[in-house]
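Slides due. Your pick:
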Amino acid sequence: MARLPPLNSLRVFEAAARFESFNHAAEELHVTASAISHQIKTLERFLGADLFRRRSRSVSLTEIGRMYLPPIREALDQIGIATEQVLQRSGRSVLTVSTAPAFAVGWLVPRLAEFQLAHPDLDVRLDASLEFTDFERSDVDVSIRYTAQKEFPTLRAYRLLEEELVAVCSPEFARRHRIRRPEDLRGLPLLHALPHMGQWRSWLAAAGVEGIDSEAGQKFAHDAISVEAAASGLGVAIANRPLVERQLREGRVVAPFELSFCSEYAYYLVYPPEYEQQPKVRAFRDWVLGIAGTAPAAREE
């Protein structure tokens, strides 16, 4: 057998090459950008060739990298297909769910054990990614997406949760700064999730508060990190109430104001209409809609 490079480095290469970004690959694979860079360097040393051109803030494939990508992608696809076939022959099936990290951490994962108990023959795999799913080019079965979009051409869509924005901080932070009214936020550090910049502006406008820079303060890669920063006492985060129910219930964060603001955004369960013929997709759809308390009214274009 020909000498083969480490499988993990090939998986990393495929993701980095697809995005032409180490940062985006890191988000998809749930590792750091430095880990991606290390794996790529390991693969390049193995091959004795550069696969990427590095610039100060970007990377791009070299000619060798572009030549290498198609057969590697095809090989990884074949490994995935073969693995799925073996799982099916063993009586198990895999359900791949793609969703944003904040929804996965804040809402789905704490409830997922119930689904697994009800469906022990299913292996659920979470693809925590901010990217919209390309169902034709991925093995994703269902996707849960945060969007203001209300129509989904070619997809079946179910509305799960509306976005209800609330300000949250640690109990100690609220006591120390005597936070009682939205106006009390003046001069305090605001925490932001980079994918949702603008949420503070909407909430402050709904609260009728002026004179606060809605974009000032520390910024984090995901909502879950900004909420964790708030729980650690770094400031006040803006969060979607359904995704911080557990932290509120446990007292790790508090919502010091009664005010909440429902935006035009929501979380939707989406998948191609033909996927509804699959028992695993129907099982997950029925379960997640039941948990969300959403009427099963689908839109199909």
In short: The two ends are 50 Å apart (CA to CA). The longest helix spans residues 63-89. The chain has three domains: 7-87, 96-147+270-300, 163-264. The longest strand covers residues 156-168.
